[in-house]
Amino acid sequence: MNPFEAWQTEERLAFRGTLEERNLGDVLVQMWRERMAGIVVAEIPTAHRAFLVREGHLAFAYSDDPDDRLGEVLLRQGRIDLIQLDTATRQTTQSQKKLGTVLIEMGVLAAEELTEALSLQVRTILYDTMNARTGTYSAFWMEEDETVPGIPDLKIDTLTAVFDGARRVQRWSVIQRGLPPLDAIPVTTPKEVWSGIAVTLSPEENHVLSLCTGNFSIKTICSLSYLNSFDTARLLWALRLVGLIEFHSMARPATASSPTISIPPSFGSMPSLGITPPAGMTLTNHPEYQDYILQELLQRYNDMYQEVVETLSRVITEDDLHRFLEATLAPIRAALPHRMKDVHINAYGEIDYDTFVRNFATMDFETKIREMSSVLEDILYSLIYGLDQVLPSEQAREVQQRILAKHRGTS
């Protein structure tokens, strides 16, 4: 029986719509942003489901689909076996106790594991509903101090749950509805938008996020990604759902100026270099100082490129190494011909500073740092994930992890 039925009245209706127009994840993110309390009801062809939301976070969920019951969810996850489920189900019928309580009494679950099990059940219901192609949703408001008898508040982070749910969607029709045309340009949102958003990305997913600089379309990012096109597009949709990226209809102008300059924190406190700026000019606007910072930026990446080249030079010939480096840079050159003009990685694992920085000459300093970092980042990921082509998988993975750990320690 739906424990939230008493709140599903026309007087409490906040908004409604169809899942063809809007994914359930979008609805829940809206409630999170508005710190709304209420019930979201989703009617899909296979089930009637309802989600309790408290101050924007997911508190509980109900489903009339027998496969969404706690016992069935734990059975599918391998947390309990068939005999334990059968025994617990019979005991709930006899005692009128809830299944979770019976599993604790049986010693199958520890008391502190029940909350985790119920959270797993809620997430499972959410993930399946986000995968639905058709259906309707209705949101009903509640007062903050209203409670539903017998229903706990699991305090599940909405954005994390929605992001994880989006990454599990298997229907292209659902993903495609949440994306703009393929020539749209993904751009990361300002850092202040990210506050309170805690998602975990794999190295391959981090690479996709690093490409969302305002220079590449969805189509181009899919061609540069180490994930397949389906997984890349799905990740972009998931990032958009929780507000980590937004889409622009055209690329950000490379010459856009900025009135202030902020030195990336990865460079720490920069030395004065003995430079005395002319009257009216700040140190960070001094050409020699800017040149120093850009050289430091390139050197940081060259150090990691050198590690890749040194590793490969021990196992392949010089000619094969040259071919590998050129093949690695080829897709980046195709996507960014003006930024990659005459750029090569030499036999020592270095990109020439003068050649590289010349391709960004028309940009203001802050834009130059951002755009150079983006290209260098793409080269790094292209190099380390190309190692699988020439090294045994275990050795390639060890080198990848070592370089990424070093990279995270300096960024």
Protein model, in words:
The chain is an alpha+beta fold and 411 residues long. The protein has 3 domains: 154 residues, no CATH class; 70 residues; 146 residues, no CATH class. It is 48% helix and 10% strand. The protein contains 16 helices and 7 strands. Strands 1-5-2-3-4 form a 5-stranded antiparallel β-sheet, with helices on one face. A hairpin with a 2-residue loop joins strand 3 and strand 4. Helix 1 packs antiparallel against helix 6 and helix 10 packs across helix 11. The two termini are 52 Å apart. About 6% of the residues have low confidence.
Quick rundown:
This protein has helices at residues 24-33, 70-76, 82-95, 99-105, 111-130, 158-166, 172-177, 191-194, 203-210, 218-224, 229-241, 287-313, 318-335, 353-358, 365-386, 393-410, and strands at residues 13-18, 38-44, 47-54, 57-63, 136-141, 185-188, 245-248. It is an alpha+beta fold and 411 residues long. The longest helix has 27 residues, at 287-313.
Largest sheet: 5 strands, antiparallel
What is the average per-residue confidence, as pLDDT, rounded to a whole number?
86
Fraction of residues in H or I helices:
40-55%
Poorly predicted sequence stretches spanning 5 or more consecutive residues? 252-275
How would the global form be characterised?
elongated
The secondary-structure class comes to alpha+beta
- Strand percentage lies at 5-15%
Helical stretch count? 16
Query: How many individual domains?
Result: 3
Strand order of the largest sheet: 1-5-2-3-4
